[in-house]
Amino acid sequence: MIHLHQPQVGQEELAAVAEVFDSKWLGHGPRTEAFEAAFAEHLQVDAEHVVFLNSGTAGLFLAVESLDLTEGDEVVLPSPSFVAAANAVVAGGGRPVFCDVDPRTLNPTAEHIEAALTDRTRAVLVLHYGGSPGDITRIAELCRHRDITLIEDAACSVASTVDGRPVGTFGDFAMWSFDAMKVMVCGDGGMLYARDPDAAARARRLAYHGLAQPTGFGYAQVSSRWWELDVPEVGRRDIGNDLTAAIGAVQLRRLPELVARRREITELYDRELADLADLSDLLTPPPLPAGHTSTYYFYWVQMPPDIRDDVANELRAAGIYTTFRYAPLHKVPAYGAGELSLPGAEHAADRTLCLPLHPGLDDADVHTVAAALRKSVEALLHR
Prior knowledge:
alpha/beta; Aspartate Aminotransferase, domain 1; 2 domains; 7-stranded mixed β-sheet; 3-stranded antiparallel β-sheet; 41% helix; transferase; transaminase activity; PyrdxlP-dep_Trfase; PyrdxlP-dep_Trfase_major; aminotransferase
């Protein structure tokens, strides 16, 4: 099976884990702090602004929790988003308000965001679809002008930039995911960024049970009664650990090569499918705007809705796994969007298919996927 995603780990990561085993310190410790510092440098910010967590989802929940939402408060987010984003809003006491997206990029524009704002909007939670930054510069300007918190779900965008500025640093909060299907993998893990260092410090406390100070051996160096507790607010256990941080540090060093290969695969797909786009209604991802770089997390094609599902099933039967991400959340009854109509999101949801994209693919794999896609699309269009 040619898979959609596949983690790229090897001897370097194994060696890093072995060092952690040898140290006999597996939990949150020096390697966690080193990974936070390295990732902060990657973002061009100080280390006090980032917190390593056990998942990107934990980052979403902590960011929303920082808003201290009350009943009736709203958070605007694009409908094609991962379910964790809406779950974080609901769990944080807010109401998710879904906005439309450009049907080709699956990213919202500033106009899409603005159309969904009300006097109860407390935050905007924007996804960078497939690693493309989207209209983040204008969205950030809109949020600043309206005094609305901007949260960036940058799970797909660990190496994306606009004019050299890393995606994730345009808003007030951002998070990245390092689960087994992402560009950088730790097995599970995530990073939270907060523009305000006090907000980052609060998130760090909440990520470890709300404790104002750590308990245990480290605190024993500065307190004669290190077992006593100070819990100013209730938290959870969302912290990362040295095992996953050690893997993450290696993956961060390898990030340029991983993204370079993703870009090569994307460009190969573009070449392989160019004539098919001319001969049929199949569309490939639009080009990036000037000054934008992508992490190339998804490669998506769009086709007539009456053949999309059949194409996906024929490719699966041929040993090629595809999918559509992300299903529109305004269609999920649990989020209470009712009969909301979002034409761009619905157009994309009916037509889009994500193809395999990861550095483990060789050129022959890409040719195989493109050829199978071509065969299926052409046959189904002429049935």
